[in-house]
Amino acid sequence: MPQPSTQPFCTCSIVGTGSYVPERVLTNDDLSKIVETSDEWITTRTGIKERRIAAEGENTSDMASEAARRALASAGITAADVDLIIVATVTPDMFFPSTACIVQKKLEAWNAVAFDISAACSGFLYALQTARHFINSGNRKTALIIGAEKLSSLINWTDRNTCVLFGDGAGAVVVRRMEEGDANPPGRILSAVMGCDGSLTDLLKVPGGASAMPVTPENIDQRLNTIHMEGRETFKHAVTRMCQASEQALSMAGLEAKDVNMVIPHQANLRIISAIASRLDIPEERIFVNLQKYGNTSAATIPVALDEASRSGAIKRGDNVLLVAFGGGFTWASTMLTW
How far apart are CA 142 and CA 83, in angstroms? Predict the structure, then answer.
């Protein structure tokens, strides 16, 4: 099996967080009116009670930009201070230009270079690690990392196995280089792990709409530009890989599971989260969960949850915080922080 890439301690930290979710709430009862399902069926299988759906004309870049503004305010800096913008998304406004370029325009962050990353639900942690490389190299000092998704644009609303899972939203963090002499900055990144197994690409995908399989009048009824997932296999690999990535990030940071104050996992399914907590032997009260409100927002789940955990006091200064994700590709990643 492919071995994940790992990186040693990096001299940068998260100094601000922000998130945004659309106003429209779509409950399980609402879904039961458009597809054969029920609140009980969805809740027992996923833990999801409701999700947010973008308004008409509200794009991924709009949600990303609002989350970014809130993260900048949290960090006490302006868009002019940002010299790198990375947007993790599988639902860009368009194929090109990148959503990050559109965000740069909306924020007027003219000093920043900007590009997107596509790693599905692991995208935010992939983007965070990419920013660490830029900061470590000395080329950049202040990065704006955003996970943003409008998954409602990829949903087949007749497929009850997938349409109940996903929602829209965005989360963002500001990452800055540690200044000399700053021995205990907030949000210090201790370690990171990334991995991928491209042999499993067929298990979770949007097969149509790009160059390999353009949507045409002849195949449009096949809904190829919507999410297709093999749920059982995805579940199995998600638990295994997220546990492995968590253990590797802990080991690299010189920590054990008992040292973790809070785990913020990708918010895909409560059964996956519970299985990870059990295998890592971490009490469920030390697992942050908000998927009951938002469902699976792919690359946005971890930054949204991190922002909520920080603002609510669920995590506090000095806490050891583990972030871990798994997504289509298959991709997986984990990051260890001292908050």
Answer: 6
